[in-house]
Amino acid sequence: MPFVNIKTPEGALSRAQKEEIVHRATDMLVEYFSEAARPHTMVLIEEVKDGGYGRADEIYMVPEAYRAREG
């Protein structure tokens, strides 16, 4: 079973963007493994809370301008 695990800052992606990532990642894996892989492909999008990881040796907080807007 192909498995994709994507970690992203919490609130950075809208529901529609997550759905698009799931569809596009699945399509990409089907290109490699054949259509038989589609029903068995798992795409997990994990949202990491602000302060839950670091970047450039500092705790990272997502700027408001980069947060997804639903709607």
Note down, in words, how this protein is organized.
The structure is a single chain. The protein is α+β, with helices and mostly antiparallel strands. It contains one helix and four strands. The chain has one helix at 15-33; strands spanning 3-9, 42-48, 54-55, 58-59. The chain has a two-stranded parallel ribbon. It has a two-stranded antiparallel ribbon with strand order 3-4. The longest helix has 19 residues, at 15-33.
What is the CA-based Rg, rounded? Answer: 15 Å
Number of strands: 4
- Count of individual helical segments: 1
Class by SSE composition: alpha+beta
- How would a crystallographer describe the biggest sheet? 2 strands, parallel
Question: What's the helix and strand layout?
Answer:
Elements: E1 3-9, H1 15-33, E2 42-48, E3 54-55, E4 58-59
Parallel strand pairs: 1-2
Antiparallel strand pairs: 3-4
TL;DR?
The chain has one helix at residues 15-33; strands spanning 3-9, 42-48, 54-55, 58-59. With 71 residues, it is an alpha+beta fold.
Any descriptors?
71 residues, two-stranded parallel ribbon, 25% strand, elongated, 1 helix
